[in-house]
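Here comes just one.
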Amino acid sequence: MKAIITGGGTGGHIYPALAVARALQEKGWDILYLGSKGGLERTIITGEGLPYEEVQVAPLPRKLSPKLFTAIAKTMLGYFQARRIIKDFRPDVVLGTGGFVAGPVVLAATNLKIPSIIHEQNVYPGFTNKILAKKVDIIALNFAAARDYFPEKIRGNFSVTGNPVRKAILDTDRKTGLEKLGLTAGRKTILVFGGSQGAMSINRAMLAVYKYFAGNDKVQIIQITGQKNYQQVLQEIEEAGIILTKNRHYKILPYLKEMEYAYAVADLIVYRAGATGIAEITAKGIPAILIPYPHAAENHQEYNARNLEKQGAAVVILDRDLSGKLLIEKIEELLGDEERLREMARQSKKLGKPDATDRLVNLIEGLVNERRQ
């Protein structure tokens, strides 16, 4: 059997698509990944050795401007390019995981009567998936709450699958994580990161946290700053009078490829509220302090964060309210209340879908078998 998979623009759209592509390949499927010309997905997908082709698309501006007409023209061109590729490849199914490239590809598939599925990672659906939801056979959701933000008439086509999470994240234990990261057993461990690009507002608030916990033998902190922010963070820490060689319970890294080690040791996470990170956090059942990125499209990160807060799995601080003082207060409040921390962990675990990849693959196979009957 054959599948075309599409999604791009951000890792949040690409990595779930990649996980499903790999799982289908293991079952003997032929996979073709369609991405946007010049998009991030090209680097990631070709680096993984998957068959890859591109179509010409552009993001649609939300306001009337000359750029809108250029974007429409490129998207129409992408639609006809996708049609040609779909006709040549003859897939049994097309999966779109969001981003503007998914629009013309999935639309072309539905118009050619190819079974099609979209996967929405966020609580508040993206622009592309809201449009495609009216055309596809199935809308797979990371969060059950997302169905409330789609039109009423299509609410019968949903399946809550969760968001695919790498097996290494699920399988790595605390002992291994502590050894790999050179951390100490018996201390409460805080993991701080802002997504793949980092988050300077979080990095700056952490300066006060480092001062507060300097010399503390009950807490240790891993902070992933993002590559572009790393040197600046180190400089600001030094200027604040914090000597890292005397505070070895602080691990400050620009990037960590093996995030499974950090998740395995974390008792509390300070994070933005991207869908991929939240899927990983909940799959492991870790309490979180979430600080949504304020400029995310449709403010979707705040919707993600509020959903976890509503379920008792997280505490939310808005970026505009963030300060070192407030962050210290929230950390102390949670670390000082073991029962609350355990309850947050339970609620987080209840929200997690560690079998999300299998659920999506089963959904794809079920749709293809149904259409063949």
In short: The mean pLDDT is 92. The chain is about 45% helix and 15% strand.
